[in-house]
Amino acid sequence: MKRVFIFVLDSCGIGAMPDAARFGDSGADTLKRISQSDCFSADNMKKFGLSCIDGLSYLGSGELSAAVARLGEKSNGKDTTVGHWEIAGLVSERPLPTYPNGFPRELLARFSKAVGRGVLCNKPYSGTDVIRDYGEEHIKTGDLIVYTSADSVFQIAAHEGIVPLDELYKICKTAREILTGEHAVGRVIARPFDGVPQKFYRTKNRHDYSLPPQGKTLLDYITEAGLSVFAIGKINDIFAGQGISEYVYTESNNDGMEKALLSLSRESEGLTFVNLVDFDSSYGHREDIDGYAKAFADFDSFLPKFIAGMRQDDMLIITADHGCDPGDGSTDHTREYVPLIVIGEKIIPGNLGTREGFSCIAATVAEYLSVPYEGDGESLLKEIYKG
């Protein structure tokens, strides 16, 4: 029985791509930035070949007991949605819409009328700063805090004591129905918070309402073949449930890693797809270099535990979806290469160099699982598998 586990270290880029300047990201390097922190550790990842990946020699010497590569994104973007879609074999040639000057007034007027509440802010903003600056007015008026970022997102923040979760989720579903056509943003995000002025904090009840993939992905091909796709973390939201057999949400990286360990006991043949979101949401966007480095060290120490539970025919893939350099002076995602590390008893160790596109992951997984596949990407299986 063949099983594949994909871990997406959300935002763990490994250096600016050649076209990074077009995205305002010249010199961005998430991994190099956090590697300079005293909290950083990558001893186990280096045993599998992390430091052998193109451009990562600054990590020092390491072994090469896995297949590794550096992947450049083909999609026209640098966000979670298009990054994950490309990992699953769907390249986005047209960028999803962004709103550096806020959303059009007529769009917000339509939204406000549909949900029966006014709107505050309407600017690109940090998620923690926006509730600090607009939270008190929100409590007084009941108006929703609507904001965006450099990514294709329509975010709605509301105090749980003012707008109950059920209502906030319903509001987000309404926004998702409105945001179509030229305004089809990648994600509508519920951002509930709690606390009192000067001490507001975001709760764990975030929920994403994603634009459905604009075509078939690896997940569809797997489930159509009668195999299982088990999603851990925000994977179900990113794919709007499309092609997913079962899913479970997580509260943190540690929770995600625990749920991934439990998934090793599952008997289903197919794919387990894991997103570890704290790297991005808790550390990258908040420019917390030490926190990011510590989270990476935690994953590094978790890795041997997971591998110890793998079976002979299991394949583990570690990658990322974009960058989010926590020290570049911006809270936005960054246009970066991502790592590829493929681990398993039957994997041939080696450095595959730099490859174009994340979709080689989808093509490789499909071939390994013997699933018919017509998506983007060239399979690496013949180069890395000795089964």
What would you note in describing this structure?
- It contains 13 helices and 14 strands.
- With 387 residues, it is an alpha/beta fold.
- It folds into two domains: 3-94 and 211-384, Alkaline Phosphatase, subunit A (3-Layer(aba) Sandwich), CATH 3.40.720.10; 105-209, 2-Layer Sandwich (Alpha-Beta Plaits).
- The protein has an eight-stranded mixed beta sheet with strand order 10-9-11-1-12-13-2-14, sandwiched between helices. Strands 3, 4, 5, 6, 7 and 8 form a six-stranded mixed beta sheet that branches.
- 52% of the residues are buried.
Number of helices: 13
CATH topology description of the largest domain: Alkaline Phosphatase, subunit A
The secondary-structure class comes to alpha/beta
Q: Provide mean pLDDT, rounded.
A: 96
CATH classification class of the largest domain: Alpha Beta
CATH architectural type of the largest domain? 3-Layer(aba) Sandwich
- CA(first)-CA(last) distance: 13 Å
Reading the helices and strands in chain order gives EHHEHHEHEEHEEEHEHEHEHHEEEHH
Strand order of the largest sheet: 10-9-11-1-12-13-2-14
What characteristic shape results from the CA principal axes?
A: globular
Oligomer: single chain
Task: Report the portion of residues in β strands.
Answer: 15-25%
Low confidence ranges: none
Please describe the biggest sheet, giving its number of strands, its sense, and whether it closes into a barrel: 8 strands, mixed
Round the Cα radius of gyration to an integer and report it: 20 Å
CATH superfamily of the largest domain: Alkaline Phosphatase, subunit A
Number of domains: 2
